[in-house]
User: What shape does this take?
Amino acid sequence: MTEHGMTNQLLFPSGFLWGAATAAYQIEGAWNEDGKGESIWDRFAHTPGKVWRGDTGDVACDHYHRWAEDVAEMAALGLKAYRFSFSWPRIFPTGSGQPEQRGVDFYRRLIDALQEHGIVPVATLYHWDLPQALQDRGGWVKRDTAQRFAEYAAYMFRQFGAEVPLWATFNEPFCSAYFGYGNGTHAPGIRRPWHVLTVIHHLLLAHGWAVNAFRATMTSHSAVQPAPAIGIVLAIWPHHPASQNVRDIRANQRVDGAMNRMFLEPLFRQRYPEDMLRHFGRRLIFPRIRSGDLDVIACPIDFLGVNTYTRMVNAADPFDLFLGARQVAQPGAHTQMGWEVYPLSIYEALQMAHSYTNIPLYVTENGAAFEDVVAPDGRVSDLERIAYLRDHLAEVHRAIRDGLDVRGYFAWSLMDNFEWNHGYSKRFGLLYTDYSTLKRISKQSAYWYRDVIARNGIEPS
Ligand code: IFM
Assistant: This one.
C-alpha cells in the first residue's frame, strides 16, 4: 500500500496524537466557586464595555460541573489526547500562599477520568487567567510575577508531574503581552504599549524558571516512563508582504518580528531580534535584562506547540505608530473571525518553527469559527469547518512527509466557548454549545473528526 493507501487516504504516523483543546477561563465557569480567586479575565469581563454584549466566563460551558460528561464526549470522539489549562487562581486564589485543595481536587478528578478513558492529558499552566491579586501588584510588568509563576508551576509539577505526559508553560505569550498590555483588548485591559517588551521578557523568564523547576521535580519521578515532557505553545502565523515594494517588505518583517521572532529567537537563539529591538527601542521601555536571563529563557525544552489559524498580508502604514504596518484584506473565504482560509499557512508555520529547532512539534491549536446553526432535525451541518480541518490536515501531512517531526494535532476547540473579547459570538467547537441549556450537540465535524482519528488519516478533497 502506498502512503496514500489504496483508498487515496493520507495516513498519519502511527501513534500520532489526535486531540482537541480548550482553556480554563473559556469553558469552566464556576468563577467564584470552591475558593477560586478572581482572575484578570473575571475582572475584565465584569467591566462594562470590555467584552461583546457584556458576556462573561462566569458560567461559560459549565465544564467545572460537567467535566464527566465532557470526558465521555471526548471518549466518544475517540480522542487520543485532550489539551486543557489549569486555572492558576483556582489553585492559588491570590497567586501564591496556601493552595486551595478543592481546586487541586477538580483537576485530579479530570485527569483521572481522562486516564480511565485512555486519553492523554496535555496541560497548559497559563492560558491568560492571571490571579487579579498579582495584577494589582503590577502583573507581568513586574519581575516578581514571573517568580510567583515558577512557584505555582513547581507546585503543579509536584501534584501532577507523573500523571501529565505533556506540559506547556504558556499559551501564546504574544497575546498576553500585546493585547493585555499593549492595545488593551484583552485582560487586564492596559494600554501601555511601552511596557510590552518588559511583559514579554517576564513571561519568557517565567517560562524558563518553570522549565528549570520541572527538571528539578522530575528527577524524583524518574521511574515514570516515558518521561513527562515540557514545552511552550506559541502563536505562529506566517506573514506575507502585500507587494515587493521595500517598504511593504520591511513592514511585513516588523509584524513577523513582533508576533513570531520576538518569541522564537530568545527561546531558541538566546537573543531578542536585533531589528525589533532597534525598532522598538525608539518607542518602548527596554526591559531590564539581567545577566543570565537569556540562558534561563533559552533552556532546552522537549517540544514546541504551534497554534496557527491563518496568515497575515501586511503593508507599510506610516499612520500606525507601533509597527508602521497594516493588514491587507485578501479575497476568498474567511472564517467568522474574519481570518482568511489559507491552508498553506499551517505548513509554513510548521516550517518556520522547524527552522528554529529540531525538537518535536505539535499543532496545539488549529480550527475555525463559523456561524453554526442547529437545524430543526437537531443537526449542525458545519461543512465549511470540515473542509477547513481537512485542508489544514492535508498540509500537516505534507509537512510530515517533508521530514518535519510533527507528533500531534489538537483541534480548537472541543466545544464552542467564550472567545475572549468576542464573548460567545464565535463558535469554534466540534461540539455545539447551547448556551441556554448548556447542552452539547455534536456537529457534523465531530463525527468527521471521529472517523479521521479512527482511520488515522484523511481523505484529501
Ligand atoms: O480561543 C483562542 C485560544 O484561547 C487561543 N488561541 C486562539 C483561539 C481562537 O481565537
